[in-house]
Amino acid sequence: MTSAELRQSFLDFFASKEHTVVPSAPLMPSSPNLLFTNAGMNQFVPYFLGEQKAPYHRACDTQKCIRAGGKHNDLEDVGFDTYHHTFFEMLGNWSFGDYFKREAIEWAWELLTYVWGLPKERLYATVYRPDDGDPAEFDQEAYDIWKEVFEADGMDPKKHIRTGGKKDNFWMMGDTGPCGPCSEIHIDLTPKGDTGGELVNADSPYCIEIWNLVFMQFNAEPDGSFKSLSATHVDTGMGFERVAGIFATTDGFKDFTKPPSNYDSDLFGDLFHHISNASGRTYTATVPANRDDLSAQEMTDVIFRVLGDHIRTLSFSIADGILPGNEGRNYVLRRILRRAVMFGKRINLPKGFFANLVQPLVTKMSPFFPELEEQQEVILKVIRQEEQAFERTLDRGLQLFDKFTLDGTGITGEQAFILYDTYGFPLDLTQIIARERGLDVDCAGFESQMEQQRQRARAAQKKDIISVFEDGGKVHSTQFVGYNCSEVCGVETHLVGTFDGENESYLIFAQSPFYAEMGGQVGDTGVAEIGGQRIEILDTITDQAGHVLHKAAKSDSYNQLIGQPATLTVDLERRRQIQRNHSATHLLDWALREQLGAHIRQAGSLVSPGHLRFDFSHFEALSPEKLQAIEDMINARIIANDTVNWYEIPLEDKPEDVVSVFGEKYGAIVRVVDIGGYSKELCGGTHVRATGELGLFKITSESAISAGTRRIEAVSGSSAVELASQNFSRLHSISRKLSCRPDELEERLQTLLDQRTELEKKLRNMEQKQAAAQGGDLLSQAVDKDGIKWIAASVKVANPNDMRGLAVDMLKKLGEGVVVLGGDFGGKVTVLATCSPEAIKQGHKAGDIVRDLTAALGGKGGGKPDFAMGGGKDADKLDEALKALLK
User: Fold this and answer.
1) What are the backbone dihedrals phi and psi of residue 871, each rounded to the nearest 5 degrees, phi first?
2) Each residue of 282-311: pLDDT tens digit?
3) What are phi and psi of 160, to 5 degrees?
4) Looking at the 3D structure of the chain, how many domains does it have?
5) Do 593 and 707 fall into the same domain?
6) Residues 705 and 587 both lie in one domain
7) 705 and 641 share a domain?
8) C-alpha span between 705 and 712 (Å, rounded)
């Protein structure tokens, strides 16, 4: 079977078992603790936790996964073996409180042996047997079912059932949360297949786990205990690349003589063919026995695997809106891309080769993953830009490598880490380059630096306690009643609690019209009247428990008011302006997608009374014309006065055209904000009732905040009107000063700029003539020293660059000799020296001359033997120091 046929066969099999075929979730995870979606179960976590009701009892899918960075990091192994990947697909079938162990085991056996035809005698199953201190009991139920399965096919269960402890056969979502025993299926790929299960879980490439059946039946509690779940679930995961590789390597289980490899399948064949054509090399599937001593062919095969894996990771990530950048998951992608480029250079692939792998990947994978074809242009642009940028970084990194190894003592751990972290040099490649030069790399020191970085990351990471909610969700203490502006003043409620901070106090009410800061929207301010006291509300926030906290000046008297009636009034005008900017943010998000493409992903936002800020994933700056088009689209919708509606629906019923924000956690019930039927987003914030309330929308700036992430700042409503009025006044003021009409300003300004350019050109010519005249005078003052001509003098030129040009010209006219010049530029001394080949031969080096000269001037400098520059502080000593050179 081809890989496509294999994937479809899996889905069709479980569809026949009444499973709903579910599309893959994006690689951008919904959990803030994950860098990437890294397992098939990620998208189903809310169902396992009871936060949401599953819309189906059974499901199956193939899930796009990335494991590179964080807890699951296979990056450094990719290429050096035949089974690690950074990107892979995870085939899975799921039961949410429906079937359990028997069906999961029997269907897995049916698919593997009766549908796909895997040799039964080569298959082994593992079941959970706890070691001392491990949770739960021996999984007798799973053992008994497997015993029946093997006996029914005439095999000895004692031979084909293996056991394992918590490490191999007890699956946990985290330190807390749903967990349970698991049963793995392994295949013996040795030539004879007669190892009797001795290689199971022995880290042998000839005995591979192909499927893991997880039986969720417990919840790990914060106190370390394990509580039985009220509903049990099944979560299975099969490595698609592994199974496809087994089919290909064994020629459909007919030939077990070749070493197993995930890279033998047609998933990589087209990519390898393309790399071969571009490099003139051939992939032979060798695996290095020693990573520290690779043959030429072993290195070639490693590089083929690295490129084949990494182009998949980058292309699928970018298609899902995750772009290479400087932080977090974006930085991981940048490192992966740079690793690919670095390895590609080892087989002399031309510049831009990595982007050329996108097309064969899209051709191969887009029939099942259409997002690749839809985002192909974006993928190509991003990878090309990253490659070009890295070419420049790479040159600097290689120069630094040369600098580190000048003394021939090798690369220290700290130096290797700098090359890795700043310049994208993977450690394995640093080792290879060093080995070619007969140098060592301090790998232990490098690992120490890496561990320090991991500790910093762990210290900055928040650790959540995962909880199962039997009642379907959390209950917040405060009911928000302030979506309608007509209902945010004079709201009657009562005070239910207080909380004291370091410099302020917080009030908690049963109901509140005050919006608490969330989703980028700032919190409301206003007034609370309680028991005759008028208390100013300075801000509104939420705590981790979901309480709405109303910030007030610190006071010990608030406790005495608990239980008393309260009247709450929001600052209405401030709220209205916040709402305008929030609705404007939604329109901006919509317009960006329309103008730039579906790859746009929100990366952060701020909605305040005075302005809005919107961060989004994009690979290049927006032109003035594009910004104007975005503005025009939004203002057209404002003039149309489109209706803004909002409503709540179950998350499982969310239509596909409703935009959600990656990284946000949503409950079982979500709120949809619909503007005119064209902008639909999940949002809990407050909004206008019609777009006409925005009045006007103006973009004030567009900039990069990191590679792959742009930021737009804008204003709407009264802020936009004020900005337009100020700009109009400035325009007329400038027009009056330039004695022209506003519509003539550009022409008048261009005339002035042209005049300035002409004057600068004339001034430059004069300066050059003056410098040339000085050069003629200095040539006549050249002195003989050590058998060659020397010039050492201070000059008056416009800038250090002119002095450099003058020195080069003088040496050319002088012939063999040394020219040393100095100048005072705004109180700072610059000196330079240039030496002819004969002067260098005699031992005169420009770098040494400048180093000694700047030391005498209270500065420092140096350079190459033929040319060097430096600076000093003591301008008064310049002439004396120059004269001393001629003695």
Assistant:
1) -140, 160
2) 999 999 988 878 899 999 999 999 999 999
3) -100, -5
4) 4
5) yes
6) yes
7) yes
8) 10
Q: How confident is the model at residue 208 (pLDDT cuts 50, 70, 90)?
A: very high
Q: How confident is the model at residue 349 (pLDDT cuts 50, 70, 90)?
A: very high
For residues 887 and 884, what is the distance between their CA atoms, to the nearest angstrom? 5
- The H helix count followed by the E strand count for the chain is 24, 31
What's the CATH number where 869 sits?
A: 3.10.310.40
- What domain range includes position 645? 583-597+615-732
pLDDT band at 163 (very low <50, low <70, confident <90, very high): very high
CB 7 within 8 A of CB 92: no
Is position 313 within any domain? no
Encode pLDDT of 374-396 as tens digits.
889 889 999 998 898 888 777 77
Phi/psi of residue 107, nearest 5 degrees: -70, -35
> 591 and 565 in one domain?
no
Two tokens at 337? 């891309």
Which pLDDT band holds residue 264 (cuts at 50, 70, 90)?
very high
Residue with tokens 């690919």: 340
Residues 417 and 496 in one domain: no
Three-class secondary structure of residue 694 per DSSP: helix
Query: Tokens 């040394």, residue?
Result: 818
pTM across the whole model:
0.68
List CB contacts of 395: < 8 A, sequence separation 6 or more: none
pLDDT of residue 473: 39
Instruction: Please count the CA atoms within 13 angstroms of the CA of 771 that sit on its side-chain side.
Output: 22
Q: What is the DSSP letter of 656?
A: T
Q: Please give the single-letter amino acid code of residue 239.
A: G
How many angstroms separate the CA atoms of 859 and 828, rounded? 10
Residues in the chain: 887
Same domain, 537 and 413: no
For residue 341, being part of any structural domain is answered with no
Residue with tokens 């005119």: 676
The SS3 of residue 74 is coil
Q: Is 754 exposed, middle or buried (0-12, 13-18, 19+ CB in 10 A)?
A: exposed
d(C-alpha 485, C-alpha 574), whole Å: 11
Across 348-490, where does the E strand assignment appear? Answer: 479-480
Do residue 557 and residue 587 come from a single domain?
no
- Residues 632, 677, single domain; the answer is yes
φ, ψ for residue 689 (rounded to 5)? -95, -20
Q: Of 194-198, 326-330, 723-727, 796-800, give the lowest mean pLDDT range.
A: 326-330
- Give CA 874 to chain center in angstroms: 49
- Residues in contact with 800: Cβ distance below 8 Å, sequence separation at least 6, in sequence order: 823, 825, 830, 832, 869
